[in-house]
Write a structure and sequence with these properties.
The complex is a heterotetramer of chains A (627), B (99), C (167) and D (513). With 627 residues, chain A is mainly α. In chain A, 73% of the residues lie in helices and 3% in strands. With 99 residues, chain B is mainly alpha-helical. Chain B has one domain: Helix Hairpins, CATH 1.10.287.3510. Helices cover 79% and strands 0% of the residues of chain B. Chain B contains three helices and no strands. Chain B is elongated and about 50 Å long. Chain C is mostly helical and 167 residues long. Chain C folds into two domains: 75 residues, Four Helix Bundle (Hemerythrin (Met), subunit A); 50 residues. The radius of gyration of chain C is 20 Å and the shape is globular. In chain D, strand 1 and strand 2 form a beta hairpin. The longest helix of chain D has 34 residues. The chains are: A mainly alpha (627), B mainly alpha (99), C mainly alpha (167), D mainly alpha (513). At the A-C interface, helix 25 of A face helix 4 of C.
């Protein structure tokens, strides 16, 4: 192995070692665990930067570690693909991951499962790194599920709460439904291409009939729908907020949920050769973006609002990869990771101050007591709302401009509407939490969080301000585009990025939408010139639709959970117990009945046995003669 | 003497033994009838062995004697035990095998 | 020789019938002893003196002593009147006849095999009865021989267990 | 050493019996010595079986460590032993699980310890004998002998309706086996008619030519014998009862090793003896297997008893294995065989955990548990790993097997494979729900307040299985290396025999997948 490969494998090795170490030694090293775990991820981050430097000055490469599965015609290695795409993701994951580790030191202080928490956080970082660098679909799938497992464990960190363990289970199972499609997609891919290595697959895909490619792409997309919480499998993500807030920041905002987008970008060849599948991705993305923003606008739980916002932003990313604008999708992924991570961390800081309280209605006027939190929160919110010069503006605008310039006007309109809603709900949150009159329980001592928590927030907010300039419009001339787009050169069945001179106008419209949303929130919650109650009454059914999350949980409960349980009970009680076992026991009972009749022969009289015996001998001899 | 004569005698003895087993209800007599059947078989073995100029049949007789001795010990032991339990040796009173 | 054979035949059949027919178990036992002696006589006229001796030692000596002892021990004389009912007599008689006819037919129709072995009466007389049997017993039949010793051991233990007061 | 290596299978088969001889001399009241000695002796046995792995030559399908002595020459029975890549791992699995179940019984078995350890060791002899025999008679004898110790283990040390369960187990399997015996004898006689000499050598019997109609009848006979043991869907109802009432060690051996004999029987006897019938009936069996996958999963969801749940999950998993075997592609059969091993490891571990829970709480009802994770973190974490392996989480052993089965079966049975794949979702549903109700949430049952965590003995018992789960998950190559040549040869034989049917082309297509 050369130096590059060694560095490549060292990156995941550190968090993996961490997992084992903290899992075994956590109870002895106690509070040190957090620092050491953060340091391990930090080392990975530095190594990623080194590798990033190496790769950006030369070509990507593949690093094979060992042969994994060899059976029949199937041969799979554990090997890594290192190119610009994976490096960008790697730096983001280790960087944001490291910051969130540091933040967790403060946030999780005194928790009973402190060591377990960091152990699995490290395992998550490891799995995410492996997911990114894996060079075949099977390895991707392995870590695809592994991150889901870490998410399961971490959502259920406070497992003694029923809601938390329910949420964990729900997350895992809903993801499994998506992964079911994903695995069938892999089967179909293997069946048609006889390989699951990215490079070999990409060579064969153009020659395949479009219907097959479409089927493969749609099945793989099912996995992305599950993992990235897109409609109709989005129901797990809001519940996943039962986990500790840094987990929500890292897993359910910045990294794991974006794995779906990354997967499509990574497999862009497959998707780009299937216009139908890509359209479907665009459709789901658009629908989800709007739906989630719509639901977010009426929720009261601050973490859930941000969770719905994540779903909505993921929708934007899928719009981007759906139209073949992979670079823009990844760019939004990165900037979203930064500002959404930031939002969660600040929300966590609020929670920390409020002793775990999440309800908007019990907050208010907290700005003076926690200025750093409030300011960083506002930075994140502005980025989310797409107000320049914050990163969200550049990335979201790149997507919307591209959607428009490629002619998907309906998607563009919905996207802009979503942008309006986005700005509204996030500023509704800000106004109700930090400003206005205080509804805080007077017994609570609201205070600013410790430095170990605020520093990551500040760093992330700086990043949220600065990172956008990498994608300075026009996007197709930006640093980021030029850097990354080379990796997508094989994707070209869609028109390349259209350099439309109208990008200025489009940007203005987007900014306007953002400002309108902020304004609406301002009118409703600060100026109070229009009472929210009146609006609520005015739009009656629509409001209750939004408030009840479009009744997804109820519908699923009725359609799926009850059906499965009913069917199961039927199988068990009727088919198993009554029919099959009934038949078995019936045969046994038949024998018993018969034997009761026959047992009269068995009268215990020795003489009658001897008699029978003698008759038998006679019969045998008789047979001998007549034979 | 021709072989068949010996065999006929053995056959007669054997059937007498069978009749004894079937007819008598006294456990000891039944046992003795069994011994008659053994003896009948032994006679047949020795006669055939003699006729065929072999020794193997005789060896069998020795083994049968061993078995008979073992059987005698066990059978009489069982008789005593049964008598102790039931106070009789009427075979028809032993119907514990009935289900 | 033939005279001896017929005398022995009549004696053994008579004594066997008496074993079955006597009312008293003790009488039966005495007739059984007689039949054992007669059988020993048969063995002698078949040139098997060794077996004859064994017959008298094991059967007439050991086993019958045991039987008589048990009869005395249990005081079985008072159980003379365990009667057989007519029904049973009839069936037994029937079976007796049929079985006898069948056995007789079996013997008479049996395919005659020619003598094959080398141990004619002369050879046995020359070598010696005991030596011939001993050679067979300790060479060809050594394994069953050993097993039979285990059988006897088991029988001893078993008889002891059965006759013990408590199990 | 050379002697050991050339007679290693005989040594493996009879070493437990020799151990029994040693144990007979131990006073039955000296329970500590009995337990320790039996565990150590079975550990020695396991170490000998590891030699098997070390000296096994990978990359060849030939039978290895062959021993052959004439036994009953009048009808061609011989003492004929040998292993290939498939039986190798099953033997090691048997020795490992025997050791572990003896180790796990220190607390569970309180009465008749001597009888228990002796029966376990006798059972081990029979299990290894069945896997190692290449002679039909020898195989059948060992196969039936296995029932005897298992009957007593369930019947004597079980719980609840243990006698019912034991009798049901024996009668169910015995009735199937007798029909199977009939089939095997029929083939034996057909072979005699064709070649004029009696042989029970399985490799020679493979060459028997049987007309198709008769083959199908014989296949049904063999199918009944093997599928009851597997168990395949409509014949599975002995399994939940036997598993539930058996003591922990019994459940572990039952699930870990005894269920494997059905599939092994198909692999060694059913399919190679009756290739054409197998090919024709494969779709039917696959349908049954897939029904088993979904049915077992569904029924597991609503189980209230932990052991019953694991038992029904076995039905589901064995359905996967049947699917893989009868899909008849190299990948899927590789997966099936690997999954056999995995299922032994995983389900064995699950039963061990249920046993530990039962020893502490004296209940197996899920509703009686809850919140144990806080009291017993080690138990919870290791139990979780086993549960995840059973779910088929990538990175653990179950995934590799299931994935290979499904990807291999996908080509020829696309729709059915998709159905089977959905079983993976349900596995997550029932196992995670169970895990949540047992381990998570608050403690509601006051009896659990003094719940102890695992002690060192229990950790030692469970660790080999956990390590194997992770090892196979990340590095299955040592296993696949040894299984694959056997499977490829198996398929090529199937191909050769299938010419008469005109299905050769079909088979060829299959083996490419």
């Amino acid at each position: 192995m050369d130096l590059k490969s060694v560095i490549t494998w060292l990156i995941p090795l550190f968090p993996l070692t961490g997992w084992v170490l903290w899992g075994l030694l956590g109870r002895y090293i106690k509070d040190l665990t957090g620092h050491l775990a953060s340091a391990f991820v930090g080392v990975s981050f530095i190594l990623s930067l080194v590798l990033f430097y190496i790769v950006s000055n030369s070509h990507g490469f593949t690093a094979t570690l060992y042969p994994w599965i060899y059976a029949g015609r199937l041969g799979v290695n554990v090997s890594a693909v290192i190119d610009r795409l994976s490096m960008v993701m790697l730096v983001m994951v280790t960087g944001v991951g490291g910051l969130i580790h540091v933040y967790s030191i403060g946030y999780m202080k005194g928790d009973k499962g402190y060591a377990r928490y960091f152990s699995f956080l490290n395992l998550f970082v490891f799995s995410m790194i492996m997911l990114i660098i894996s060079n075949n679909l099977l390895l991707l799938y392995v870590f695809w599920e592994a991150v889901g497992f870490c998410s399961y464990i971490l959502i259920g960190h406070w497992y003694h709460k029923k809601s938390a363990s329910d949420a964990a289970k729900k997350a895992f199972i809903v993801n499994r439904i998506g992964d079911f499609g994903f695995s069938v997609g892999i089967f179909l891919l293997f069946l048609t291409t006889r390989t699951i290595n990215y490079e070999s697959v990409f060579k064969i895909i153009p020659a395949l009939p479009s219907i097959t490619v479409t089927a493969i792409a749609l099945l793989l997309f099912a996995g992305a729908v599950g993992k990235s919480a897109q409609f109709p499998l989005h129901v797990w993500l809001p519940d996943a907020m039962e986990g500790p807030t840094p987990v929500s920041a890292l897993i359910h905002a910045a990294t794991m949920v974006t794995a779906g987008v990354y997967m499509i970008a990574r497999l862009h060849v497959i998707f780009s050769y299937s216009p139908v599948a890509s359209m479907f991705v665009l459709f789901i993305g658009t629908l989800t973006a709007f739906l989630a923003a719509f639901i977010a606008a009426s929720q009261f739980d601050i973490k859930r609002i941000i969770a719905y916002s994540t779903i909505s932003q993921l929708g934007y990313m899928f719009m981007a990869v759906g139209i073949g604008s992979y670079t823009a999708g990844i760019f939004h992924l990165i900037s979203h990771a930064v500002f959404k991570g930031l939002l969660f961390l600040t929300a966590g800081s609020v929670m920390h101050a409020m002793a775990g309280e999440l309800d908007l209605r019990k907050m208010g006027g907290m700005y003076p007591k926690m200025k750093i939190t409030a300011l960083t929160f506002i930075v994140g919110a502005l980025a989310l709302s797409g107000i320049p010069p914050f990163s969200g503006f550049f990335s979201k605008d790149a997507i919307l401009a591209d959607v428009f310039s490629r002619g998907f006007y309906l998607s563009w309109i919905i996207g802009e509407l979503t942008a309006l809603l986005t700005a509204f709900y996030i500023f509704r949150l800000i106004f109700r939490v930090f400003f206005g009159q205080s509804n805080v329980d007077p017994k609570l001592h609201v205070h600013e969080s410790p430095a170990v928590m605020t520093y990551p927030m500040v760093i992330l907010s700086l990043a949220a301000i600065l990172i956008g300039f990498l994608g300075m419009p026009p996007f197709d001339h930006s640093v980021f585009y030029n850097f990354l787009n080379v990796d997508f050169k094989n994707a070209a069945i869609f028109a390349p990025f259209v350099n439309n001179a109208s990008w200025v106008i489009l940007s203005l419209i987007s900014v306007l939408m953002g400002l309108l949303g902020i304004l609406a929130a301002y009118i409703l919650y600060i100026r109070k010139s229009v009472s929210p109650e009146r609006v609520k009454r005015a739009i009656g059914p629509i409001y209750s639709l939004s408030y009840h999350k479009v009744y997804f949980d109820e519908i699923y409960d009725f359609l799926i959970v009850r059906t499965v349980l009913g069917l199961s009970t039927f199988f068990w009680r009727i088919i198993d117990d009554a029919i099959i076992d009934g038949a078995v026991n019936g045969i046994a009972a038949g024998f018993a009945f018969f034997s009761v009749k026959v047992k009269r022969i068995q009268n215990g009289m020795l003489m009658s046995y001897a008699l029978t015996f003698a008759i038998g001998v006679i019969a045998l001899l008789f047979y001998y003669f007549i034979r | 003497m021709p072989l068949n004569d010996y065999l006929i005698v053995a056959g007669v003895l054997f059937t007498i033994g069978v009749a004894g087993v079937l007819l008598r209800r006294n456990l000891i007599v039944v046992y003795m009838s069994l011994e008659i059947m053994f003896n009948a078989v032994n006679l047949g073995f020795v006669a055939v062995s003699n006729y065929l100029n072999l020794v193997d049949g005789v060896i069998f007789v020795i083994f049968i004697m061993v078995v008979a001795a073992a059987e005698a010990a066990i059978a009489l032991g069982i008789s005593i035990a049964l008598f102790r339990v039931k106070g009789t040796i009427d075979i028809d009173s032993f119907d514990e095998l009935k289900l | 020789m033939e005279i001896l054979f017929y005398i022995f035949s009549i004696l053994i059949i008579y004594s066997s019938i008496m074993v079955v027919a006597s009312k008293s178990p003790l009488t039966s036992a005495l007739y059984l002893i007689l039949s054992f002696f007669v059988l020993a006589g048969f063995y002698v006229i078949l040139d098997m003196q060794f077996i004859a001796a064994m017959q008298i030692l094991v059967y007439a000596g050991a086993i019958m002593v045991l039987v008589v002892l048990v009869i005395m021990l249990l005081n079985l004389e008072k159980y003379k009147n365990i009667k057989t009912d007519m029904h049973q007599k009839f069936i037994s008689g029937l079976i007796f006849m049929v079985l006898f006819v069948e056995i007789a037919l079996f013997i008479l129709t049996g395919a005659g095999r020619k003598p094959t072995g080398i141990f004619t009466s002369e050879v046995i007389k020359r070598v010696g009865n005991t030596q011939v049997i001993g050679e067979f017993l300790f060479t060809k039949y050594i394994f069953p021989f050993e097993i039979s010793s285990i059988l006897l051991l088991v029988a001893i233990i078993g008889a002891y267990l059965f006759a013990k007061k408590r199990f | 050493m050379d002697f050991l290596l050339s007679h290693i299978l005989t040594v493996l088969i009879f070493f437990p019996l020799v151990s029994v001889g040693v144990l007979l001399f131990v006073d039955k009241n000296n329970e500590g010595l009995l337990r320790n000695l039996s565990t150590i002796l079975s550990l020695v046995e396991f170490l000998i079986s590891v030699l098997l792995f070390i000296y096994f030559k990978p990359g060849t399908y030939q039978f290895q460590f062959v021993e052959r002595y004439s036994w009953i020459s009048s009808f061609g029975a011989s003492y004929f032993l040998g292993i290939d890549g498939v039986s190798l791992f099953l033997i090691i699995l048997a020795t490992l699980l025997t050791t572990l179940s003896l180790l796990s019984s220190y607390r569970y078995i309180k009465e008749h310890v001597k009888e228990f350890v002796i029966l376990m060791l006798i059972l081990e002899t029979f299990m290894i004998g069945t896997f190692a025999s290449l002679d039909v008679l020898l195989f059948y004898l060992f196969w039936e002998f296995m029932l005897i110790p298992m009957y007593f283990i369930i019947g004597m040390w079980g719980t609840g309706r243990r006698v019912y369960a034991a009798v049901k187990f024996v009668l169910y399997t015995l009735s199937g086996s007798l029909i199977m015996l009939f089939g095997l004898i029929y083939i034996f006689i057909l072979h005699f008619d064709q070649t004029g000499n009696f042989t029970l050598n399985i490799v020679k019997l493979y060459n028997t030519r049987i007309p198709l109609g008769l083959q199908i009848l014989l296949f049904i006979a063999l199918f009944l014998g093997f599928s009851i043991k597997v168990p395949v869907f409509p014949f599975h109802t002995w399994l939940p009862d036997a598993h539930t009432e058996a003591p922990t060690a019994g459940s572990v051996i039952l699930a870990g090793v005894l269920l494997k004999f059905g599939v092994y029987g198909f692999f060694r006897f059913g399919i190679p003896l009756l290739p054409e019938a197998s090919i024709i009936l494969a779709p039917v069996i696959i349908v049954i297997g897939v029904i088993g996958v979904l049915y077992g999963a569904f029924v597991s969801i609503v189980q209230k008893d932990l052991k019953r749940l694991v038992a029904f999950s076995s039905v589901s998993h064995m359905g996967f294995i049947m699917l893989g075997l009868f899909a008849m592609s190299a990948i899927s059969i590789d997966g099936s065989i690997l999954q056999l091993i995995n299922h032994g490891i995983t389900t064995g571990a699950l039963f061990l955990f249920v046993g530990m829970l039962y020893e502490r709480a004296h209940s197996r009802q899920i509703a009686d548990f809850g919140g144990i994770a806080r009291k017993a973190p080690i138990l919870a974490s290791l139990f979780m790993i086993s549960v995840l392996a059973s779910i088929g989480l990538p990175g653990l052993n179950g995934f590799i097997g299931e994935f290979l089965i499904l990807i291999g079966a996908f080509k020829n049975y696309m729709i059915l494979t998709i159905f089977a794949t959905s079983g993976v979702i349900f596995a997550a549903v029932y196992l995670l729900w169970m895990f949540q109700r047992v381990m998570f949430q608050e403690i509601t049952n006051p009896a659990l307040e003094n719940f102890e965590d695992m002690n060192l003995r229990e950790i030692i018992t469970i660790m080999p299985l956990i390590l194997l789960m992770v090892f196979i998950g990340f590095y299955p190559v040592p296993f696949l290396d040894r299984i694959d040549p056997t499977v490829v040869h198996f398929l090529s034989q199937l191909n050769r025999h299938a010419f008469t049917l005109g299905t050769a082309a079909k088979i060829k297509g299959m083996s490419n997948a």
